[in-house]
Amino acid sequence: MSMELVVDRKWKKQGYTISNLTIDGKWFCNILEDTDRGLDDSMSIAEIRKLKKPSITAIPRGTYEVTLDVISPRFCTKPFYKQVCNSKLPRLLNVKGFEGILIHAGNTDKDSAGCLLVGLNTVKGKVTSSQDTFTKLYKALKEGRDRGEKITIKIL
User: Fold this and answer.
1) Rounded to an integer, what distance in angstroms lies between the CA atom of residue 132 and that of residue 136?
2) Burial 109-133 (b: 16+ CB within 10 A, else e)
3) CA–CA separation, 32 vs 78, rounded Å?
4) Are 31 and 116 in contact (CB under 8 A)?
5) Per-residue tens of pLDDT for the chain, all 156 residues
6) What is the model's pTM?
7) 20-29: long-range contacts (C-beta < 8 A, 24 or more apart)?
């Protein structure tokens, strides 16, 4: 059994990217990322490093496993994450050229350093209702994991 998240990048703008997130084919929310610079996991690390601008670049297109088993050093002191996920935010594994890519709450590209921010795209260039959306997403992911499902995320 597996749970598949798909991030379909729809609106690629100068400073940000807005996507639709589906879980097992059903729309769930929007995703806000940094600028899509055309990276793809088929590229070499050298190619990715050449195109990547640190902290303002969306991760490469590709498929990644998601774990809920790593405490985030950056977010572990925040009461919201302690309460919702025991500071174990969803983490994408083996993202070529990137480290510590998480799915978390936030509203603008300034809240991301390559991570995927969840919410609703009700304001141009932003996502809103982010903490509420994160809470619902984490619950869905944890339920899938507790059923023994492997969680993957495909970035298109």
Assistant:
1) 6
2) beebbbbbbbbebeeeebbebbbeb
3) 21
4) yes
5) 899 999 999 999 999 999 999 999 999 999 999 999 999 999 999 999 999 999 899 999 999 999 999 999 999 999 999 999 999 999 999 999 999 999 999 999 899 889 999 999 999 999 999 999 999 999 999 999 999 999 999 999
6) 0.95
7) 21/118, 23/140, 28/137, 28/140, 29/118, 29/119, 29/120, 29/127, 29/133, 29/136, 29/137
Contact in structure between 149 and 1 (CB atoms under 8 Å) = yes
Residue 74's closest CA among 33, 104, 35, 116? Answer: 104
**Strand bridging mode 103-105 / 116-119:** parallel
93 near 127, Cβ under 8 Å? no
What whole-number distance in Å separates Cα of residue 140 and Cα of residue 120?
A: 17
